[in-house]
Design brief:
Chains A, B: It comes from Luteipulveratus halotolerans. 2 copies of one chain form a homodimer. With 334 residues, chain A is of the alpha+beta class. Chain A is built from 9 helices and 13 strands. Chains A and B meet through helix 1, strand 2, strand 3, strand 4 and strand 5 of A and helix 1, strand 2, strand 3, strand 4 and strand 5 of B.
């Protein structure tokens, strides 16, 4: 696909010095209680209260992970926080700090970089997360990429994908399929039919605290839904050596909520929609923590079934060429 | 500038699945003693022995940070480890773990990704560093970028840039100007005139242990030379509110060593050559640690002087357009 830039007025990165750009960006990036040393030296120093640090990294590339027509710079900054902090939450942790790398065509508007930093800084501040470092580099014409690394603390042992046991309940915290529904609406040029879903696609706001809450409640396995419910449930099934059996009746409300918005695609959005960043976890029999609802059970076997029928999850591969086309699809679900 | 790809035979990233690519890459990436949980779950978990973690991030972009004509994929992987681990060393720390993000044109040869991972893995293993996570993404045609985040432990308080005191000695551990000399030789198409310098440019091997050793010896300020001796000494001067006075006579051996290799450019390489990743530190009066040599002193005042004369450091800005040209220079010194 071709570049998706919407021309913006004003100065470009090539018009100002790196130092000046940093002077614009650094003030909008929050500090936080875990920061022992922030940006400006060779490295940052971040408290790791428990003597161990959770670490994950996730990048967004223009034309692959967002289109400028559909997502503002601020949206991109906010989504990067959500993607990375959801991974930390999915281990049962709290995110303490982020490092951010911007690799940009020198013709990128300064306003884009500033607005991305503003969105990222605002989402980080709302989550109590500091931005402690980063890197800037120029890139070939048309390329715009932001990479984030998140660090976090967990008070419990990390909740892996491999701990689910036969008899566990499968539960979700948060929405299902909203991001995919929002993307569908943008592709159909009818964002007004589902403003909440479009907003969730642009800037998901997972309930990060549900991760540590689930861990404290004894969750046996957990991840965040980045590639779709079925595909991600399949990861738990595979890592744990079990089958995940989802019940259509327990997903009925999720499908019904999206039907007015995307019609017959609602079921596919719920089952295979990615980038949702809601948490999916397994819990032993008994009461679920507040904010979690059961959608199925862990059984013997392999793979994921919905109402007893095996399903494939679809999902996105970053490099593989789709069978029908020479071009990669415009956006991926991760 | 235009793309600098050297055509390579064999399959491209678009020919194989992401899973298959990971199967090729993961086995060449080392684990290490600090790894409590490695790749494969939502995040890694890395020991932070002292209750705090050093964190830094540095990216390399093809055409900006390397040219395929001059650097192999393995060189790029090795250099990324050096750049990041030198930053950790410059705080007085040992690097424990790396996270690696590859953002690549789907037409990138699989062999390039595998060889980059092999170089990165080998350099990490030699330094006792684990690779614990990462991300893969496709990029617009012609773009190839690798971003690394390094985590580290320090047994001492981190050695900042701001602690230099009037009367301190200024000292360096390792070579000066070799990377710049190597780059000059590549630009002049005469790599055979200085194979050691060319190798240092392609895959610098800083003595990481000198960082913790300097910290234990009471270093008051430290950084690694990434943008050139004068420019980086200026950072210590500025952060510490002092002047750095370098002595030409103490740099004579460094200049003499490079004169047979790059002639009259030897002095400029020593004073302003970047990407060297040798450590520069200030120490109180007295004996220096083994492996360190004095090159000057900390004085009252501002900026950097060589034999009493103020000097400017030159150096690279990532986005600023050079005055004489519409095109960015082919490679930067960082």
């Amino acid at each position: 696909m071709t570049s998706s830039r919407t021309p913006q007025p004003g100065p470009r990165l090539s018009d100002i010095s790196e130092e000046r750009l940093l002077r614009e960006i650094l003030p909008v990036l929050p500090s936080g209680p875990a920061v022992l040393l922030g940006p400006g030296d060779d490295t940052a120093l971040v408290r790791a209260r428990t003597g161990a640090v959770l670490a994950t990294t996730d990048a967004m590339v223009r034309g692959r992970d967002w289109l400028d027509e559909w997502s503002t710079a601020e949206d991109v900054g906010r989504k990067l926080v959500a993607q990375n902090a959801a991974d930390i939450a999915a281990m049962g942790g709290h995110t303490t700090a982020l490092l951010v790398t911007l690799v940009a065509d020198p013709q990128t508007p300064v306003a884009w970089a500033r607005d991305m930093a503003r969105g990222l800084g605002a989402a980080a501040a709302e989550a109590g997360v500091a931005v402690v470092g980063g890197d800037l580099s120029s890139a070939p014409a048309g390329t715009l990429m932001v990479s984030v690394t998140a660090l976090g603390d967990a008070d419990t042992a990390p909740v892996l994908r491999s701990g689910a046991r036969v008899g566990d309940q499968v539960a979700v915290s948060g929405t299902l399929g909203w991001s995919a529904a929002g993307l569908l609406l943008l592709q159909r040029d009818s964002a007004e039919s589902g403003p909440d879903q479009v907003t969730w696609h642009r800037r998901p706001r997972p309930a990060y605290d549900q991760g540590p809450a689930a861990a404290a409640h004894g969750a046996t396995a957990m991840l965040d839904i980045s590639d779709g419910l079925v595909r991600d449930a399949g990861r738990i099934a595979s890592a744990s050596g079990v089958a995940v059996e989802l019940q259509g009746s327990l997903l009925r409300d999720d499908v019904d909520a999206l039907t007015p918005v995307v019609g017959d695609d609602a079921r596919a959005c719920v089952l295979t929609g990615g980038e949702e960043h809601s948490l999916l976890a397994c819990f032993p029999e008994g009461e679920l923590p507040a904010g979690w609802r059961r959608i199925g059970d862990v059984r013997t076997g392999v793979g994921v079934r919905v109402d007893g029928a095996a399903v494939a999850g679809g999902g996105w591969d970053h490099f593989e060429r789709p069978a029908e086309s020479e071009e990669p699809p415009p956006l991926h679900q991760e």
